[in-house]
Design brief:
With 229 residues, this protein is mainly alpha-helical. The protein is 62% helix and 0% strand.
């Protein structure tokens, strides 16, 4: 696949393409992952409602108390999520080097998507505080670097990465206990799913990657991609 042939090189052409795949807003500013879950977040709002209802009923239910801050178990999951995001940053940087000087949509998208992943790294670091390890998932970088280093495989490799990252965060979301962690991971997951759709559009595929995004088979297993150090 010759990715330099995809899309229009003009700003208007890029805007039309990004609107078509629903990413115009996501590419114009860093995503909502930079904001930690607060009272306005659906998860936090639901938690507040549950807490109020429990108080009103004078604790007549046996529901577990709602936890906002990351639990000990959440920390391990968030550290893994951050390692995946750091790997994505490194891989998009490699793609940027490969496509340097190319006046096409792909080069622009690679640059912006890399910035999104860096924003996720920073947001996760802020939530973890001193417990953040800021460790790149070396196994994932090693496996995908060859495909992010060749112009004709970058788009499909990036799409697969976004699919896997989305599925991984969806898997983690089911295990998280704190609403802050759940809110942040869900916001990251939503935008990365959109990344995959945008890349599918650039690749010219006939189907959207929705099945892969929501498939447990696409999730990156910690046993295969451990966080070292």
């Amino acid at each position: 696949m010759d990715i330099t042939a995809h899309g229009e090189s003009s700003p208007a052409g890029r805007r039309r393409f990004l609107r078509a795949v629903g990413l115009g807003g996501a590419l114009s500013a860093l995503p909502v992952a930079l904001r930690r879950a607060d009272a306005s977040h659906p998860l936090a709002a639901a938690a507040t409602t549950t807490s109020t209802a429990t108080t009103t009923a004078e604790a007549t239910t046996t529901a577990a108390p709602v936890v906002a801050a990351p639990t000990k178990g959440d920390v391990a999951l968030l550290v893994y999520a951050q390692s995946i995001e750091l790997a994505a940053v490194a891989l998009y940087a490699k793609a940027g080097e490969t496509l340097a000087g190319e006046p096409v949509v792909t080069a622009q998208v690679v640059d912006v998507f890399g910035a999104h992943h860096q924003a996720y790294v920073d947001a996760l670091s802020g939530l973890l505080g001193r417990k953040a390890t800021n460790t790149t998932n070396a196994a994932l970088v090693e496996k995908l670097t060859p495909k992010f280093s060749a112009a004709d495989t970058i788009v499909e490799a990036a799409m697969a990465l976004e699919e896997s990252a989305t599925a991984t965060h969806l898997d983690l979301l089911a295990k998280l206990e704190g609403t802050d962690a759940a809110g942040l991971v869900s916001s990251i997951m939503i935008v990365e799913g959109r990344h995959a759709v945008a890349l599918a559009g650039i690749a010219g595929g006939d189907t959207l990657p929705t099945e892969a995004i929501f498939s447990a088979k696409s999730a990156l297993k910690q046993s295969d991609y451990p966080v070292e150090g």
